[in-house]
Amino acid sequence: MKKSEIRFSIALDDQKVPEAISWSATDAGPDIHFAKAINVAIWDRNQDGTMKIDLWTKDMPVDAMKYFVVDNIGAMAETIMTATNDVVMATKMRDLCRVLTDHIDEENKKQK
To answer: What Pfam families is this protein classified in (predicted)?
Structure first.
């Protein structure tokens, strides 16, 4: 059996707010990669529920964070389609992504 590891490293300031996020993975080569935000969801088979880790650095722009959330919803739409072939659920999630992207774009126009 092949094993693969993903490692996250979080640098915190003295108030325990993330300043830097880096990650590496055995299947991603030897390089260390950097991120401004991570969202990890794990289905806990013992609790029969989702465990989540959401972290973002203090220099993550608000509009980028909103797009990050929309991108996650879009990725979940692809996951639900691949895993269950539930066209209705995937379509509703994609529709929500379009609505939210329009909302963010509109907010950005007002701020400029």
So the answer is: GldC-like (PF19937)
pLDDT at 29: 87
Q: Which domain holds residue 16?
A: 1-58
pTM for the model: 0.86
16-56 pLDDT, tens per residue? Answer: 999 999 999 999 888 999 999 999 999 999 999 999 999 99
Number of domains in the chain: 2
Give the pLDDT band (50/70/90) at residue 111.
confident
- What is the sign, positive or negative, of the torsion defined by CA atoms of 50, 58, 74, 2? negative
* Alpha carbons 96 and 108: distance in angstroms, whole number: 18
Domain shared by 87 and 98, yes or no: yes
Residues 38 and 15 in one domain: yes
